[in-house]
Amino acid sequence: MQFRNIPPPDYLKDYVRHFWVIESHHTDVSAATFRTIADGCPGLIFQHQDQGILFQNDKQLAGAILYGQATRHAALRIRGGFDTIGVYFYPHALKTIFGLNADELTDDCIDLNLLESTRSFQLQNRLTNTFSSQSRIDTICSFLLAQIAENDRYTDPSMQYAIDRIRQTNGHISVKALREELQLSERSFERKFKQHIGLTPKLFARIAQFQACMQLLRQSNYNKLSDIAFEHDYADQSHFIRSFREFAGLSPFQFRKRSEELIENFSILTK
């Protein structure tokens, strides 16, 4: 199995964190499962269906799917080999690239063709008939650039500011203070944030807090787990563990012992 993590071109760097590619033509990966966790970001996955089929639970997924924010861990199963490209977006992408209210896709995914866009339908056809990973990424980049030009009117500087502040502080910011700084009522702020991000500000802040803890675990930059809990303002270690299980599906200790994570927030399990 071959895996690559590819940075976006400069003109997409405000929308795309990175592209990723997984390729394997061995039939013995038919029991493989993608494990994902809550990370505050939506994404897009293309799987060449002549090579393998993706399933969520027992539901077969389309060849190109757009997925929204996750509030919990999830798993996708593959039958066959990997010929997969993913796009890891920034939190605002569903609104600013696709013109969607992000909360419509929270904990869900959609066949890209169902966006009722000729451009989306053409993208899947082109990806299916293109065999070089770099050519596919170039095709996706052209598609995204056209989408951004069409949906630029949905960009909201106040929401981008709110996202940046929450992420910069690892979720350690008063949502009330942030709302007052933006001069928005509680109701307006939450409504706009859910439309642009797909989550409430408070939940997005909790996920940012959790992700900061995961980064310390990955880097082994701590002496004991309680240090991480207190550094990131959890009431105690038990609260930290409960939150970690909620978003990752396993405890911090279990996560620390695993090594199958290919990139942040994404791993493959095989039987």
Automatic annotation (TrEMBL):
<feature type="domain" description="HTH araC/xylS-type">
    <location>
        <begin position="156"/>
        <end position="258"/>
    </location>
</feature>
<keyword id="KW-0804">Transcription</keyword>
<dbReference type="InterPro" id="IPR046532">
    <property type="entry name" value="DUF6597"/>
</dbReference>
<dbReference type="InterPro" id="IPR009057">
    <property type="entry name" value="Homeodomain-like_sf"/>
</dbReference>
<keyword id="KW-0805">Transcription regulation</keyword>
<dbReference type="InterPro" id="IPR018060">
    <property type="entry name" value="HTH_AraC"/>
</dbReference>
<dbReference type="Pfam" id="PF20240">
    <property type="entry name" value="DUF6597"/>
</dbReference>
<keyword id="KW-0238">DNA-binding</keyword>
<protein>
    <submittedName>
        <fullName>Helix-turn-helix transcriptional regulator</fullName>
    </submittedName>
</protein>
<dbReference type="InterPro" id="IPR050204">
    <property type="entry name" value="AraC_XylS_family_regulators"/>
</dbReference>
<dbReference type="Pfam" id="PF12833">
    <property type="entry name" value="HTH_18"/>
</dbReference>
